[in-house]
Amino acid sequence: MSATSMHGGRVAIVGASETDTIGKRPEASVLGLHAEAARNALRDAGLTISDVDGIATAGIYPQDISHYLGITPRWLDGTLVGGCSFLLHVRHAAAAIAAGAADIVLVTHGESGRSGVGADPWIRNPAAISGQFEQPYGAQAPYSTFTVPALRFLHDRGMTVEHLAHVAVAQRTWAVDNPRAARRDPVTVADVLGGPTIAYPFTRDMCCVVTDGGGALVLTSAERARDLPSTNRAVYLLGSGESAESSIVSQMADPGSFAAFRHASAEAFRTAGLTHADIDHFMAYDAFAHLPLYALEDAGFVGRGESGDFVAEGNTVKGGRLPVNTNGGGLSYTHSGMYGMYAIQEAVRQLRGEAHAQVPGVEVSFVLGVGMFFAAAGSLVLARHPA
Fold it and tell me: What are the structural domains of the chain?
């Protein structure tokens, strides 16, 4: 199948919604969060469970979702590559719809990252590559695994920890007026630098929040979208990309640059037939404060070594040249473990004109996600109108 058959606005997101609330949900299980988000997204699309014939999800078996919801699917995708899985699901669903393998695809997400209700235990596998070559040396959690590449990134570019603090401050400005955001208090660079150290160079506000919640998307063909009540709120997929690098940080070709980010971004721009100048809004995965800096450079929005000053000079906040992470991101909005779904949700809200901190005139949004530390990446180019 050619890339043009699944892109160029031929597939649309017609339903998009998060769970009723996000943050702390001890009364809801992982499966319950999936179902709640699914019902909300289908209601948003003007569709019902009986319309769905495709299921995609990560972290839980897709057949568990379809059975729980009472769906008999003819297409399934259980791709699990970490936090960017849902970006890949959108890409895969578009291919399935274009090929006639599915008509209405439901992509679901739910995690009890804070409360741990119904969540599978995290069991480290000593036989895995990471179990053999990183975990014995203490690289066991994201905040410890990300430290070395972050420090290498800063060193190679002549940046300082203050540049990381500027990222946290910039994203907090988007969250202060967002009632669903976990962190809403305004902060300064001094506040961020003066916070408790989690693992050098990261202080608390440079690390993502830990929450419960979920979201879901409903996709169909652009032709089918025209017949739905939600047609005026449809968001179109113009391009997408996916890639992967090493499953362990120590084997990255260059710890200061993420190859999967570069390849997935280039593929998305190529398939969309657009350039960086066409992008009005950018959602960059931000489990930690260095990731938006990687994303800005590896996706090609700025040159090597320019990302820190680009953020510090106010280009990513309200009124800036490139609004970034306008919900507050994983640092301030929410992060239940796999953040990619929330990044897509915010891009859809911006394109629909329904965001809490709405950016005027958003026509095209770029979404870039990372999975399993630096192992995988996915990217989407979404637009208000088909190409």
Answer: 3-118+209-383 (3.40.47.10)
